[in-house]
Amino acid sequence: MPRGELRIYLGAAPGVGKTYAMLEEAQRRAARGTDVVIGFVETHGRPHTAAMLGDLEQVPRRAMTYRGAEFTEMDVDAVLARRPEIAVVDELAHTNVPGSRHDKRWQDVQELLDAGIDVLSTVNVQHLESVNDVVAQITGTTQRETVPDEIVRAAEQVELVDMTPEALRRRMAHGNIYRPDKIDAALGNYFRVGNLTALRELALLWLADKVDEQLEVYRSQQGIAATWEARERVVVALTGGPEGETLIRRAARVAARSKGADLLAVHVARSDGLAGADPAQLARQRVLVESLGGTYHQVLGTDVPAALLDFAQGVNATQLVLGASRRGRLAQIFARGVGVTTTALSGSIDVHLVSHRQAGKGRRAAAVPAALSRRRRLLGFGLAVLGMPLLTLLLKALPDLTLTNDILLFLAGVVGVALVGGVWPALLAALGGSLLLNWFFTPPYRTLTIAEGDNLLALAVFVAVALAVSWIVDVAARRTREAARAAADAQTLAAVAGGVLRGERPLPALLDQLRETFGLRAVSVLELAEEAGGRPERAREEHAWCVVASVGEQPACTPDGGETAVPVDDRITVVLSGRRLEAADRRIVEAFAAQAAVALRQERLAEEAATARPLAAADRMRTALLAAVSHDLRTPLASAKAAVTSLRSHDIEFDEADREELLETAEESLDRLARLVGNLLDMSRLQAGVLGISATAIGLEDAVPLALDELGPAAATVGTDIPADLPAATADPGLLERVLVNVIANALRYSPPDQPPTVTASAHAGQVELRIIDRGPGIPEDQWEHVFLPFQRLGDRDNQTGVGLGLALSRGLAEAMGGSITPETTPGGGLTMVLRLPAAAQTSPEEPQE
Predict the structure, then answer these.
(1) Which burial class, exposed, middle or buried, applies to 486 when counting CB atoms under 10 A from its CB (0-12, 13-18, 19+)?
(2) Taking residues 718-736, what's their average pLDDT?
(3) Where is the Histidine kinase domain (predicted)?
(4) Is the pLDDT of residue 761 over 50?
């Protein structure tokens, strides 16, 4: 059975019209005769969306009970039994009620797709798993309902339902999205213009990546190799030379000219695995590329121009940045450089040849290490000096051999010398063997004269073959040694990278791995101290350096205090103590030193961020406190002052009822001020960690009535349902009363007059749960955490609701007593605050009392 197709309507925020557009498509397909049913659609009370349901068949929902409340979810079995061609399933990221077949609705959709049913669905960009942390940063709200990106990316069609932030806010203000009592809070929080603009950009960028993937799949399926300039992609080729930073910055400027252009850096490594470029230079250049917003790539290839163009065409690049050739003029006469060859073969890709300081200066020849050890070379020379005469004596004892046989045996001797000692002993053996062959075995004998031309040709071929074999043996030995060295370097880099990834602190992990790898006593990272003014010329002064990180015993405190110093830049140096390193090892250490500098910068940025966070939070709280106090103290003060002034006035005569009313107004205003000041003081004590707590066993059947009495006549309508056998809770009686007063007062404020709040209690798993249930407007789940922030009042704009400290203080006090406060949606509408406290330990009557 073919799998069904998934079509998703993606939006930047609630209210952009995803469900409406999805239902429009469902109506269009139904009008064409397609069998379409509604599996689950949530209209959120929006009349235009509800009207779009029209006469579409709706599969009855499945009723479920959870914690004594009734909920409805999509009935997957009913949809499968109905087997429509298309099922409409809203809110792909929705979390199902516990007890459902699947935890998430997208899993229900997967089952429908597996059954061959096409599905239309919706999702907002904030529910995509990959951007969840970004959305939390933008909006300050963490989305708990998410859907894996691969589910959405696997959809056959993803359609963006877009709307400008201004138009969306107008829809909100007109009441087309939320109920009127939620509009002000939504516009002032989640639906701010900046938030909506950022979310819109996220949605557009995510969809652009999805479209890019589809384009690549199409090009691959159709075998299209030509570049399609759908988006500017600038590729910069790096050789590992000193000109790399110039090329990277030039390529970044080219990319910056086009909005949304990609920057990619690529290095072509030798396919034989041998070391070519400087790893330290490449490490620094990789850091530079990533700091400019680009990506670094490495490919293998023997033909550099072909490898570069293959990579550029593979990523659909539009421009390629190369450095002007470093080869000298004479070398360029005999062979075209990489830049010229790449330009000739580039086709539709624009190639930029960038000049730099190293252009035309020629490549500095790298020091070629000896292919064989000194012992083997000496042994080879010994064989050449002694072996050739001994072979001559042996051949003289065998008079029946021809000159051809003599040459072949001498050639075998030269090859043996080459295998043992390399090219120079073999060269000596070849020259000595040719002279011995000419003197003893070529007519006329015992002279260096050669009578026959054939003999001369044979001797010449012997010398040429001997030299060629010697050179090949020497090159093979050198390549073997270089390959072994490259493998060791790769293993070292992999070990260090693994140590960094596994370590909780990257810099110490990197230094410790470096110390163990090279068998060092200590490794330290030094920085030019502030007292030295950060100037390298003062590096020789006493106390000019400070140790910012070190591992091992007796780390060096100055660059001269260790055996090897590797400068990273003008201020930072890595010093190795214990033994001196070989030149080849130093190249690897330089790469590690560059990574150590990056790790140091990351640690410092993390420390700065950690320091700035509490300062920013404190600044926000001070700003909010000043704004709230200046606004909310004014009304009760004005009311109390007006009442007292009226009572003291001699111009108006008040009867007893008026006097009582004025005194009651003054008393209520002062009580409100007292509660406000008490909340502020308790919040400051909580944040300072000096709030005194005296926990004891207390029954909720005693605590709740005390809190209701504190709230006065307004709490007379609050219903309570506290079981008589409910175990006692462990709490501070005074703080518990404050918590209950604040939470119940909040429920009273938002409850309709004909549906007062209800307080119920139960015990579960060693905890006592108290539920304060209201039937008010409720709060969207994505804004639950906002109500617990100080000075937040979702939807409130009046002067009598306080400074928004009640729930924030209540959560702080509950957590200080070892409990918690969490919100839940009241079935049927409203908000339920769940206060959990540890149950008091109960002693069995049979146990002795001490």
Answers:
(1) middle
(2) 86
(3) 628-841
(4) yes
Q: Phi, psi (5° rounding) for residue 262?
A: -100, 145
What is the C-alpha separation between 549 and 164, in angstroms, rounded? 51
- The single-letter DSSP state of residue 839 is B
Per-residue model confidence (pLDDT) at position 109 = 94
Q: What is the mean pLDDT of residues 537-543?
A: 56
User: Is 702's pLDDT higher than 50?
Assistant: yes
Give the Cα separation of 105 and 138 in Å (integer): 26
> 262 or 844: whose pLDDT is higher?
262
Domains of the chain: 6-222 (3.40.50.300), 233-354 (3.40.50.620), 374-476 (no CATH), 692-838 (3.30.565.10)
Q: Which position has the higher pLDDT, 835 or 243?
A: 835
433-442 pLDDT tens trace? 878 877 887 7
Which region among 445-459, 657-671, 792-806 has the lowest average model confidence (pLDDT)? 792-806
Burial level of 126, CB count in 10 A (0-12/13-18/19+)? buried
* Predicted local confidence at residue 60, as pLDDT: 92
Residues 6+ apart with CB under 8 A from 108: 74, 76, 89, 96, 101, 102
Average pLDDT over residues 839-843: 69
Q: Are 13 and 167 in contact (CB under 8 A)?
A: no
Q: Is residue 522 within 8 Å of 556, Cβ to Cβ? A: yes
Does residue 767 contact residue 837 with C-beta atoms inside 8 Å? yes
Q: What's the token pair of residue 494? A: 């992999």
Residue of 522, 499, 523 lying closest to 510 (CA atoms): 499
Enter the pTM of the model.
0.38
> Which one-letter amino acid corresponds to residue 120?
L
Which residue type does 524 have?
A: S
Q: What mean pLDDT is reported for the chain? A: 77
Question: Is residue 292 a contact partner of residue 321, using CB atoms and an 8 Å limit?
Answer: no
* CB-CB contact of 315 with 295 (8 Å): no
Phi/psi at 427 (5° precision)? -60, -40
Q: What is the mean pLDDT of residues 615-639?
A: 59
Give the number of residues written for the chain. 850
Percent of the chain with pLDDT over 70: 76
Sign of the torsion angle spanned by Cα atoms 338, 344, 349, 355: positive
| End-to-end Cα, the chain, rounded Å | 73
Taking CA atoms, 231 is separated from 263, 293, 346, 469, 784, in Å, by 11, 16, 18, 54, 41
Q: For 65, which DSSP code? A: E
As a whole number of angstroms, the distance between CA 698 and CA 688 comes to: 27
Amino acid identity of residue 383, one-letter, is L
> Which pLDDT score is estimated for 686?
56
> How far apart are the C-alpha atoms of 816 and 584, rounded to whole Å?
60
Cβ-contact 318, 330 below 8 angstroms: no
Q: 448: which residues sit within 8 A by CB, 6+ positions away?
A: 435, 438, 439
SS3 111: helix
Region 483-498: mean pLDDT is: 61
H-only helix segments in 689-789 = 700-711, 733-750
